[in-house]
Specification:
With 127 residues, this protein is mainly α. The chain has one domain. It contains 5 helices and 2 strands, in the order ααββααα. Helix 2 packs antiparallel against helix 3.
Length: 127
């Protein structure tokens, strides 16, 4: 069973507070993200019950197989989640809590920590 939107909102707010980026002005984006997460859960639950990824669709040219509409709902929810996470400055790790030992995650943290050094411009000396 999918969680309620309020439960998602609490976990998002906690992640933002943990990152010290929470403000009351983010409530609309938090609600939008929570709604998209709930929609994705519903879509995934529906996909789990499918026997086939396609449905038989009647067109003016006859019957044809088309992707099940729940896959479009799933994709739209995923796109919305990605946009909202980016807008809120959250990562999936921040929402999930602790991360497991993941070499790619560790490498990404090291690269971010190293930062980008200011370029040094070398000019030839004028004689």
């Amino acid at each position: 069973m999918a969680k309620k939107i309020e439960e998602y909102k609490k976990s998002i707010e906690n992640a933002l507070k943990k990152a010290n980026t929470y403000t009351k002005g983010l409530d609309f984006q938090i609600t939008t993200l929570a709604s998209a997460l709930r929609t994705l859960d519903f879509a995934n639950e529906q996909i789990d019950t499918l026997d086939s990824p396609t449905v038989l669709e009647e067109t003016r040219y006859g019957s044809k197989h088309a992707p099940h509409p729940v896959f479009k709902i799933q994709k739209d929810a995923q796109d919305s989640i990605t946009r909202q996470l980016k807008a809120l400055g959250l990562t999936a790790e921040a929402l999930a809590g602790e991360t497991d030992d993941d070499p790619l995650y560790d490498l990404t943290k090291k690269v971010k920590a190293a930062g980008r050094k200011k370029p040094r411009i070398v000019k030839p000396k004028n004689d």
